[in-house]
Structure formats: structure tokens, C-alpha cells
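We close this part of the discussion by returning to an individual protein. The amino acid sequence and the C-alpha cells for this protein are reproduced below:
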Amino acid sequence: MRAARCVSWLLGICVLTPPSTKLGAQSTVAVGGAPICPAGRAPSTDSAIVTVTVNAGTAWNSRKYSDTERQLILNYADAIRQHFVMPKSLGAVPTLAEWTHVAWGSEPTHYSAVSGRLVLVVKPNGRLREAFWQEVPFSTPLATAFYRATIEADTAHDFEGMPVAEARTVDDTLVVQLRTTENPSPATDLPLMRAQVVSYIAATPPTVLKRGPLYYPTSLTYSRVTNEGEMQVVVGSDGRAIMPASQITRLEWRDFVSTMRRAVEGSVYHPATSNGCAVPSVIVQPFSFTIRDSR
């Protein structure tokens, strides 16, 4: 009996919209090179004033949150919001072609510069053990301000004694989401700030022309673990992934980091287009790794 390694690209192309934005003034930063246009053409752009909200994540890896657990996360989100100080600007963020996307464990969102997921590892008493970004916004000032507000809320003991359905004796993992949406729900979205964002108006999304090779890590062959992963990939106007700007946004086993990154780096894409120009864009790329017996 032989062990068969089974890996697959679950290629969901959900293009996102990064803003090139300042609250009041705009600055465009090229990611993956400037748009590539025929003579006399330029990409179409759009700008919008959007509301950034705080929402409860829907899952952490294979665990899906119940309504009660999501209400607990919203309580944490509201405590963080009380300490949040809006940055003077979103800083240097890329202008990309994007559409509303749904990543694993989150509600639909649109603009990458102001979208993200912050993971809170909390002790049984509700206090913070650690916090880290699962999906970091492209806006560094926003990410910094929100993380700082989280630490300040914990320091002020605002997390202590949060109401829970049942007492715990071990740490819990909660996901707080930042997102933008046209129709935020008053019951689940807490307004955080307003921001101006800009994006390319895309005529076509990026598509995969050639997938990079994907391998099951040999070091894990005998442990036989299954892993579900996801990457937020910035596809340049040249059709190649911009690895420094791309990030792994879901991963249950660290051993799969290298193989996921190598697969994306080796892929070739048809870039998104805008008014006849090739433009940078973002896609959400899921992965699935399994190993099973075969005869």
C-alpha cells in the first residue's frame, strides 16, 4: 500500500481593490511596475469615500465561530474601537484592480488597503496573550493604529471579564476583521473611520496561464497531515506574482509555507486589464493538501 500525496490549487479568483490613498489627498504607488499601456492609452481609475468597519471573523482555520462566539468577538472589537485613533493618512498604498472578495474566515470586503484580520489569543480571564495579523492591511498607518488600540484596550483591562458562554481553562483564539462593504449591517459592523480610496476600474480579472508546481512536503509524508491554506497574491502588470507584497492569510501547518510560496512565485498570470492596459491586481488563492493511501 502506497501513500499518495494529493495537492490542488483551489483557484478562486476574487480580485480586491487597494486604494492609493490618503484621507484628503491621494498618492499612487506602483506595485509590480507601472501599468503597461498601448500608446495613447491610460488605465481608468475610480476613487471613493468608504466607511471602514470592525466585524467578527467567521472562522479560525478549521474552527467556525458560533453566533455566541462572534458576539464575544464583537465585544472585543468594540473595546478596541474605543481606543482607536484614526491615522492622519493611509500612507503609501498601492493602486490595484479589485473586486469584492471573501477570504476564508471573513465576511465580504473590498479595499485591500483598509481590510485585514487581527488574531487575538486570549487567556481564560479574557486578557490578551498575544495579537498578530492574519491578513495585514496594505495601509501601514491603519494597521499600526489598530494594533496599538488593541494593546491599549488590554492594558486598560477592557478585555478582562468579557462575558462568555462557559468558563474556560485554556487560551482562546478570536479573529477581528476590518472591512469595507456597501451595505454594512448595523448588528454586526461597528463603524471605525472614513477613508478615501482609489483603484483601477478593471475590464477583466487576472487569470492563470501556467500554475507553478505544487508539492506535498516530504518531511510530512509520514505524519499524513491535511492542510488548507490561502494566499492573498498581488499580480503585477507583467503577469507575475509580486512576492514581497503577497501574504499567506490562512495556514494550519507552517511546513507548507515554502511550497505555497514557491508555487505562487512559479505561476504565470494573464494580468487584469483596464481600458486596454495591463494593471496590477490582487487575487485570493486557496490551496488544499491531503495525503491518502492508494494501492
